[in-house]
Each structure stands twice: as structure tokens, then as C-alpha cells.
Amino acid sequence: MPTPVDAQARPPAPRETMSRERERAQGTFDLERLTYAMGGGESDVKLKRKFMFELERDPLFKLSDIHDLTKAEIRERTMSKFASMAYYVTNEPVAQFQQRMNVVSVADPAFWTRFGVHYGLFLGALRSGATANQMSYWMSRGVITLQGMVGCFAMTELAHGSNVAGLETTATFDDRSDEFVIHTPSVSATKWWIGGAAHSATHAAVFARLIVKGMDYGTKTFVVPLRNPKTYQLLPGIAIGDIGKKMGRDGIDNGWIQFTGVRIPRAYMLMKHAQVTREGEVREPALAQLTYGALLQGRVSMVADAAVTAKKALTIALRYAAVRRQFKTGDNPLETQLLDYPIHQRRLLPLLAQAVAMGFTSYRMTALFEEMSEELESFGSDSDEEETKAVLEKLKETHATSAGLKAFCTWNALETIEKCRASLGGHGYSAYSGLPSMYNDQAVQCTWEGDNTILTLQSGRSLVSSYADAIKGATLPGGLSYLNSLPEVLTTACPTDAAALELDTLQAGWDCVSANVVKQAHEKFEQALKSNGGITREEALELCSQERFVAAKVHASGYLFRMFREALIELASNEPADNGVVATLEKICTLYGCWAIEENAQHFLKYRFFSPSQMDAITAEVTRLCAELRNCAVLLTDSFDLSDHILNSPLGRYDGDIYNHYFAHVQAANPHEPVAPYFERVIKPLIEREDLGFDDADEIDLDEELKEIQEEREGDGEDDKEEEAEKVDKVKKTVDEPPK
Amino acid sequence: MPTPVDAQARPPAPRETMSRERERAQGTFDLERLTYAMGGGESDVKLKRKFMFELERDPLFKLSDIHDLTKAEIRERTMSKFASMAYYVTNEPVAQFQQRMNVVSVADPAFWTRFGVHYGLFLGALRSGATANQMSYWMSRGVITLQGMVGCFAMTELAHGSNVAGLETTATFDDRSDEFVIHTPSVSATKWWIGGAAHSATHAAVFARLIVKGMDYGTKTFVVPLRNPKTYQLLPGIAIGDIGKKMGRDGIDNGWIQFTGVRIPRAYMLMKHAQVTREGEVREPALAQLTYGALLQGRVSMVADAAVTAKKALTIALRYAAVRRQFKTGDNPLETQLLDYPIHQRRLLPLLAQAVAMGFTSYRMTALFEEMSEELESFGSDSDEEETKAVLEKLKETHATSAGLKAFCTWNALETIEKCRASLGGHGYSAYSGLPSMYNDQAVQCTWEGDNTILTLQSGRSLVSSYADAIKGATLPGGLSYLNSLPEVLTTACPTDAAALELDTLQAGWDCVSANVVKQAHEKFEQALKSNGGITREEALELCSQERFVAAKVHASGYLFRMFREALIELASNEPADNGVVATLEKICTLYGCWAIEENAQHFLKYRFFSPSQMDAITAEVTRLCAELRNCAVLLTDSFDLSDHILNSPLGRYDGDIYNHYFAHVQAANPHEPVAPYFERVIKPLIEREDLGFDDADEIDLDEELKEIQEEREGDGEDDKEEEAEKVDKVKKTVDEPPK
């Protein structure tokens, strides 16, 4: 039915829709207090705001044009940022600088990595592996301030990644000259993916097999100079190339390195742990595990980064959903805001709850890591057996917990970005939405610093071993405490239908189901050991890898829920009850718990913690909580406290004025061209081309002619043969008689 | 423990490992026959091979360098391919040309789209909307051969995507001049994402609201000239810009268009359906649904494309997994092939089974679409009521089936690419692996031609309505036939533990669970209708959107299984029993059925089709089948029949020689530079910088001085005041007396 044009309803401007969203949420919670609660406290939040403000004004941290820079331009800009950050690294307290880097990692992940290659990996390798004299030597060479040297971390090889023990590069001790000879024996041993190698590094921390007198002592670390720091010319025996285009993080100059008989002084091998004397005696460390402790810091910071990255994507998606209108429903004369659709709420709000859970968990994880680091630092050759045991236990706990969390949190963040991107419809496919590059940058977090699948299996392996400890009567710490109440926890069930949605019940459910999946993995392992004669423990573990994977997955979801809930309990004792902060977080915590149960429903049903109808109630609760939190969804994005500059997406703007800014952004990034640059070369020849004119071939009138030729051949067969013979003679003559 | 270097085992070269894989699989199945079975038959497979061979030799289809081209270069190369394809489109039978395009879509998705914008969308709009006279007019203007015009399809707007009825652009009839005035009333009405608009199109099929005498008749289609075909200058009133950088498919010149009072003749409105007479009388079509029939072709071809794309990603990942070695297990002196790890088999082989299922389903889907198209084409204004009803039923069935399949198959393909990419570890992050760009190209398939979430809900809505029909006693066709045996199907269960893994049981399970989730959605809908007074059907449908989503998801998985199985039964009657083809496909079909059940386990448990221990048996069967199919995994990738040129990934090479070719590829793509181009500008100033020298500030000796100043001030207070007064007088004088 046609409608009169004059009578048509006009939607309010997006800015207005956005202000109404904030009005609507008024009184739900104290925004500033919730921001503090989720941001690690008032002082951290204020520091973060200061850093965001500084970045926004720093011309080198311009973000709006990054999607249209070439790889070469991105590389140069990324390197340009080193100078000011190197200033802060030496002039700011460590904790404060780390906070700064947390902000930088959200604004510019590639810079964060490239800078981190020197300060996190290269310097980290020195810190954990160098003797005191070695350390002061490298400090005098400028390693702390980047004055005179820039380091990179040459571990992985073309054919060798996760398995460090399988690396091929050799460091052969030459006792005549007191040197090591660093050598790449084959193409597959080429150092690969080395961040900083292609352009910026003067030195590398090289992982190579120590060979002394024909014996292979496994992988150790050596500092190898790559370039002359004055001219940046490659040193003799060093071949380096650019790894080239990557999925994301193109600001990092990843390179490959081949060493051909490169000689370094013996003192360039890091000798805090393993040692080689002047005479070629090799001394192995008592505790090889300590060597890799520093690598854990990367994982821990990735959990925090995953939380913030997910919050960034969700801020864009939820604000867009608040102002975007699509289809009319019911009697509404206006199109409906996306955020009003139950399915859209369900697409985004459980992910928001998960991001908040990851955020709280990351603070716990950081605290655990710091405890461990302190113990590790005070640990020395004079430590007694008990101290050694304590530090190893701590290292093991940090390792197992960080492995599983690193894997699932980086996966969660990646999935969140993708779901946010897709929730923007077509606009999510525009580079200027900011989400495609977020995805491409995040993807590698699931691979480096321990491939997620491998880490997951390690976490599952550690759970299997904890289960074995538990049935032997050991008392397990923190996140594993549910294994302390075996066997009751395995058979517990939701007490009543009415109690199904309480936080205590959800916790009991996670404990029950986590214990059961861990038990299942343990049983499968034992069974594999028993039923396959002569099988090693390693092989038996491979045979239960699917069960280990499931155990790690369920355990990690339950762990996030537990950490969220513990933070909530702690908060409840400090926060005024009337400001809505605790009440709001309680809803978010319940949403996370219920939704994660829904996602893992098969286990809750299989182990009969919930009945099918209780599961339906869980599903209904997720839908209900989504609808309830929808009302303050925009205010929740405000509490994530990310500036428009950091968000770098016209579609996620604070003020909601998305279309005008998106349009302006697209126009600015793509200046008008009167015609395509290739118009004359390609388009004009195409549309003005003429048909090939094969039709003209009819003019040849071939078939009549062929008939004539054939008749002639048949009639004058003999004559032809004679003629042919004459021709052949003529040709022969020409060939035999040389030209005069 | 150190080991003697001389005694170390050396792994065989990757090429050798790869040949052993093919030897190992020998005798499992007849490769050529399996290739025909999965490729749509012998003649289609041979045609496809011919096309791949042609592409490989065509310099314009060079693929190895695409990752390092700029956006401008990709755009130009993409456009260059138009000429030869335009030749084939007019010189080849339609069916054969479609086969060619199926190959092209895998080799170059951006070209496929850009070319398809003209031939699929613009020409499709003419075919379904133009009268006979209009059609011959545009044919005489060169629409078939691109000689004189190139079309684009201007539907979506900046603020309006999926809801075509909500578009803002107006086409106002001016009865004095017999013209329409095309106008963009606001920024949000800017035509957006229009492929071909930025550079190549001369004309657009514009979707705009038809306004006649102040009345709005809703969205119709108008052909609007954009550029002078001779000069490509924009016509008056047309503003066009480049949309710029996208997540993928940068070869397409997506643009935005604003119309400012652009006049077109009345005859440029497509009038097969809605019509406007010279006098301004508007005649609406009896069957508005028929207008969008042509849009379905895109969806149908996307199901086929999803299957091939998934197979392409899996070929790379499985071949890489066959030659990549990592970690030692057991007593093996060599590192283990990734493909030997149970977890790696589980990551890839179920996805392979799913890709095969999608392939078989796509053939069925294409057949259904072709039936519908034939009926639609023979349909005219002289068709009687029965014919009309038949064509509408067919359209509805095709719509509902294609909606759900388009959504889940494009999602499946996207997920498959991502999982394959991640399974390559770090190398999956290299652009040269081919997988990052596959992901970025595929992502948009989940959004355009109907956003997947919206299509899923449409599919769910159609299932709810089918359920209502079924309980009223209607007999439902094909993939919905399980609803014909209500209510028995709802309460059926796996008969015995022994029967759990049979294909018949799996089928019964899918029928039972599909019927139950559809029932649940229907009940939730009825309940929403009843318990909310005065609610519309539309609103009630929104309230059960989660249940509709779940219903559509389960139904789609079950549908893929059913189609696979039907194809298998058909094949079994034609294929010799001893060549292993049917036996192998049966395993793959069982793997798909069991794995998809595992993925949807909660429903199979909830509706008690399987007991928890039967579910464990399903899980064990997935693991077992993965291990069994591992033996012929490489040969299965061969049966997907994709050339190395099409794969364009040194890591997925047929011969397995991955490291040498990957290294050579990286070197060729990134020529050696002696130092970074920005060395003098950025790196040298950084590493040669000196400290800021704030320490020197001590030389100022400020505090002693300040004390002196203060003492002077306190001692000679009066003098100072006098001096001050003098100074003020002086200044006043200067101010009061104007300069001479």
C-alpha cells in the first residue's frame, strides 16, 4: 500500500539516539566507580587516562590513517615510536611503564610487539640467562637505552617452532680460538619469523645446539652480532631477508637469518645456567626449568591484553548496535535499534560478560606471576632444597594456569572480535570499522608464545596429573580446589529448580562438571596405559588428547567464572551497596556463568548436574539477563573507558554520530580521482573493443576450394608425383651447392 | 644427556615423506573415480581441469605475487581480466561458462565478484525486472558484451542494508517531462558498498522509493547512467567516491554514490512487475515475491563455493600436516608428522568430512534452483492459479532451503579456513601460506546476499511454519520429510548400543533431534503469542529468535548429513563395489554424522536419543574414524583436484617440497635491501642519540640564588616598591603618549 510521503516518520539523529541510551541507563550504576572496579582501581584508571591522553596528542600515534599506509610506511612509523618509548622505559617506574605499555598494546599492537622484542624477549633472555658480568657488559653496550644496539630473539626456525629441543642451528665450540661457530646447516634451519631481524636489530639472542667435541648438549642461547651498529651493514657470514607480508602486525620487521660459520667469543654464550669453560668442559644447570621462566611474562600479559581487546571490539559493536536501525517491528513507525533485537543482545552481551570475567581473571593471574617472579629472583645457588621445591611448585602452577588461560583467553578475544565484526553487517568489512585489522592483529596471539592447542594439551596434562594427586589425597591450591572434595563433587546435582540460577549453584555446577571431565581424561589416560602393552606415558597422553582438550576447555571456563566471582565477593566488602556497582557486576557474573553453561550444556546434562528442564531455565535466564543488561549496555561500554582515539572506529564513537564521521573518514582516506588510474590502459580498450571478426572467415570460401583441390589431386595423381620429385631435386641442389 | 652428533637420525626430505603418504594410501580407493564422484561427474571434472590449465597459463591470472600488490595494482589487474572472460561469456554455452566461473571464484574471488556485479547482479536485475522492449534496448547498448556499458547494482545505503524496504533514495515521477528524478536526501541515504561504482561502471541499477504525486510506493529498480562511456567523466548530479580499504577482496572497486536531482527517462524504470504510465498511474504487480527470485542464484552458488573453498584450505592444511614434523613421541628417533597426532587428525578430518557433505549438498541445491528457475521462466501473465501456486511454493522452498544453507555453509567455510590456518602454526600467519587472504576474502560471504544471522532466522521461521503445517497434517517435501512422522519421531531413541554407529541410526537421530528443536521453537512462538496480549506474530517471532536460531542450526547440520547420505545411496548403485569409492565415502559420511552429533551433543542428550555412554561411543568413533582416514588423508586432498596454481600456497604443494619453495617464494617477493629505507631517518638518530642532558641543570645553582633574591626582597622592601612605582609610571607614559 502506498503511503503519503508527508506522513512518514523520521528517525532521530544517531547522536540523539545515543544520548537517550545514556539517559535510559541513568541510575543503574555509578559509572566512575564501576570503571575503577573493572579497571584495576582508581589510580590505575587515572594513569591509563593520562596515557591515553598523551597518545592522542602524539603525532606519531596518529591512528586514523593506518588502514591506507603501505607496509613500508607502517614499518617506518612503527620504528619512529621507539625513541619516545625508550625515553619512558628509562625514566618511569617499571610498574608505571608496564601500565603505559598495556595502553600502547591496544592502540598499536605491532609497535607493542616490535618494542617488546627488544625489551621483553632479548633483554628478557639476558636477564634470565646472563651472568652478572655478562649483563653489565651488555648494559655498557647500551642494551637498556637502545643507544648502540637493538636486540632480537632468534628462536624459531623454518621447520621448527614449538619444539625448541628440535632446533637445528649449531653453536660449535672451537677450543683453539675460544670461540663458538654459529651455523645454519640447511634451509629448514633458517631462523624464521624473527621480529626486528629484517630492519632494526644489531644483535640476536640465538637459540642453537651447543656442540662441544662432537657431542650435542641441546639448545642454549648465544648473543650474535648481526649488523654494524654504525652503518647497519650485515656482518660477514650473516644473511638476512624480509619475511614479507603477514596476516597482520605489518609494523614488525620479521625476518629470516642464516649463519654461515659465524664466530663469536665464548663469553657471548649466556652462562647463568649452562656453562662452557675455556677447556671445553660443559656444566649443565641443576634446574633447566628455570631457564624458561621469563617466557611466562608474555603469556600473562596476553591474558590482560585479550580482555582489553575484547572490550574494545565490544565497545564498537554495542555502540553501533545502539544507533543502527533496521527493519520495523510491531507498530513502531521507526526502524528498530539493533540492540533491541533479542538475537542481537544474545550475540554481544554474553561476550561482554566473558570479557569482564577475563579482565578480573587477568588481575589475579598477574598477581600470581608477580609472586612467582619475586621468589624466582630471590632464588640462587645458595637456596636450600625446600626453597628450590617451593619455587619449582610455584613455577609449575604459574605455568599450568597461564598456559590454559593464555590459550582460551586469546581464542575468546579472537572470536569476540569476529562476532563483533560480523554484527556490524557490511560495515564490519570496511577497514575503517577497525575490526578487520583487530582480527588480523589478534590472530597471531593464538599461535606465538606457545601455540594454543599445544598449551591446551599441556593444561589438560597438568589437570590429569592433579587428578592423580587428588585421589592420592593431596590438597590442591586455588583454581583446582574443586578436586579436593572428591568423590562427592562428582555426583553432586542442582538441589532444586528454584536454586538453579543462584551463583552458588552455578559454582557448584562448574565444580562438578570440571571434576567429571578431568576424571574422564584421567580414566582415558589410565586405560590407554593399561590396554596398550609397553606404551610410554607420552604415548598414552597422546591417545587421550581429545579428552585432555575438553578437560582444559571446561576447566578454563569454570576458572574464569570462579575468578570473577571471587573478585565480586571481594568488591562487595569494599563498595557501597547503593551505587549499583556490585549489583550490576553480579548480573554480569550470572550471565557469564549461565551462558558458559549453555555453551558447555552437553557436560551439564551428561553428568546430570542439571536436568533438561533446568537447562531450559538456564537458557531462559541468559535471554532475560541479556534483555536486562541491554538497558545499560552503552553505559557499560563507557565503563570500559577507551577513548575515541584508541577505538579508532567512526562506527564506535562515544557520541554516536557514526554516519557523518564514517563518511568523512572514507572521503579523507580516499581522495577523489576523476577517472580510474587504469582507465586508458584497461577500461577504454575493453568497452570500445570491436568483435574479433571471425565471421569474415566465411569470405575464404574454403570448402568449395578444398573440393577442387581434392579433385585435382585424384585426377592428376601421376603428374603431381613428378612435379614433387622435381621440387625435391631442386631443394637438394641448393643444399648441396654452397652459395657463391 | 649429551648425544654424539654423528649418531643423530636425519628425517627424510619432505618430498620423500609425501611420496610415502601416497604409497601408504595405495589401494584404498580409485583416485580418479573418487574425484569424479565428488566433482560432479567425469565430464565436469575434465572440464574443470581444462579451465585450471588455461588459468595457469594465462599471465593475467598470475597468483604468486598477489600478496604484495598494492590495492591500486590489484584493482587494475582485476579489471584486466574482464576482456577474456567477456569473450567466454558470449562464446561458451551457459552451463560451461558457469563451470568456468566456479573455477575462477576459487582462484580469484575478487575478480569473480567484480565480474559478477555486472553479469549476476546488474544483468540479473534487468532479466528479472525489464520488459522485453527494455531488455532489447539495453542489449543494443552492449549490456551482454560490455561493449559500451558496464553495470553496477546500487541497492544498499550507508544506513540501510538488509532491509530493502527501508531505503531512503527517492525516484520522483515528474509527469511534465515524463522523467524520474533520482535523489539522495541525506548522508545516510548515500548508496554504499556499490561494487564497480568507484571505477568501472557506466550505469547503475538503482533501488529507490517510487514517489508519484506525493505518494510513496516503496522500493523499485531504475537504470541510472553514471558516467560518459567515452570519457568516464561523471554525469551531472552524480557524486561518486571510493569506499577504500576493505578486509579482503580489494580487487573490487566498491564505491559510494550520491544523486542530486538526476533525471532519467520514465522508460529507465524496470517495468516487468510494477509500472508507471505516462499519466502517472502506478500499477503494482500481483506477485511481488517474484521480483527477488534472481537474487537466489547468488546464494545457491555460494553454497558450492563454500564447499570448494573449504576443500582448498583443507588441501593446504592436510598436506602441510603430512610433511611437517614436530616433537618426538615414544621411541621414534625422528620428530612425528603432525598428521600422526590424534588431536591434529581431529582438528582437520571432521572438517574434511563436512566439506565433502557441503559439496554433495551443493549439487542438490543447484538442481533445486534450476527446477525453480525453469518454472519461473515459463511463468507469465497468462499462467493460471494452479501454476501460480506451484511456482510460489517452489520459490518458497528454494528460498528457505537456500537461506539456511547459504548461512551455515559460508560460516562453515570461514571456520574451516581459520582452523586450517591455525593448524599451520606460525606459518599460517604468513600471507604466502594463502590462508589469511582466503579468510579475509571469505568473511564477506557471511554478510552479503543476505546476512547470515538474518537468513538463519528466516530459515528458523520457515521451520516454525512448516511445523505448524505438519501438525495440521500437511505432507512436507525433501529435507523436511522428518516432520511427516510426528509425533513418533519426537520420542524415538537409539535402539541398541550396538546400533549407535550405523548410518540408519544416525539418520534417525538427526530426524528426532531436528524435529524436537523445531518443536521447541514452535512452542516458544505459540507461548509468546499467547502470554503477551496483543502481540503481533512478528513480535512473537522476535521473542523466540534464539530457539529459531538453534532450530535452523540443527536442521542445517541434519540436512547436510541427509544430502550426503542420499548421494551415497545413489552412488552405491552406479559405482563398482571393489574400487573403494563407496566404502571411503561411507566412512567420511559416518564421520560427518558422528562429529556433527558430537558438536550438537546437548540436544541428543536432552531429547534422550543417545544415552551418555552412547555419546561416549560416538566420540570414540570420531577419534577412530579420524585415525583410519588419516591413512588416506593426502590422497583425499588429491581427489579434491585443485592444481598447485589454484592453491597458490608453497605450504600446500602436491609434491610436499614445502620449505624450499616457501623460502624461494619469500625471497622472490621481498628483494634484498642493504639497509632499511628509513635507516638514516629513523634508526640512526635513535641508536646514536645522546641523553637529553637534564643533569646539566644542576649548573644553574638555583636554590642559593633564590635565597639571595628573597633576602634582597625582604631587606630592601621599600626601595623595591619605589622602583616598582617608577617603572609603572614609565609604562603609563609610554601608553598615554602616542608615538610621534
Task: Walk me through the structure.
The structure is a homodimer of 740-residue chains. Chain A has helices at residues 14-25, 31-38, 42-57, 71-80, 82-91, 94-107, 109-129, 132-140, 295-323, 342-378, 385-423, 435-442, 452-471, 488-491, 503-531, 537-543, 545-572, 581-599, 601-606, 612-630, 633-640, 644-647, 658-669, 679-687, 702-715, 717-736, and strands at residues 3-4, 151-154, 170-174, 179-183, 191-194, 203-212, 215-225, 238-242, 255-259, 262-265, 275-276, 282-283. Chain A has 3 domains: 12-38 and 291-514 and 552-672, Butyryl-CoA Dehydrogenase, subunit A, domain 3 (Up-down Bundle); 149-285, Beta Barrel (Butyryl-CoA Dehydrogenase, subunit A, domain 2); 676-735, no CATH class. Chain A is built from 26 helices and 12 strands. The model of chain A has no long low-confidence stretch (mean pLDDT 93). Chain A is globular, with a radius of gyration of 34 Å. Chain A starts with a strand and ends with a helix. In chain A, β6 (203-212) and β7 form a beta hairpin. In chain A, strands 2, 3, 4, 6, 7 and 10 form a 6-stranded mixed sheet that branches. Chain A has a 3-stranded antiparallel sheet with strand order 5-9-8, with no helix packed on it. With 740 residues, chain A is of the alpha+beta class. β1 of chain A pairs antiparallel with β7 of chain B, so a sheet runs across the interface.
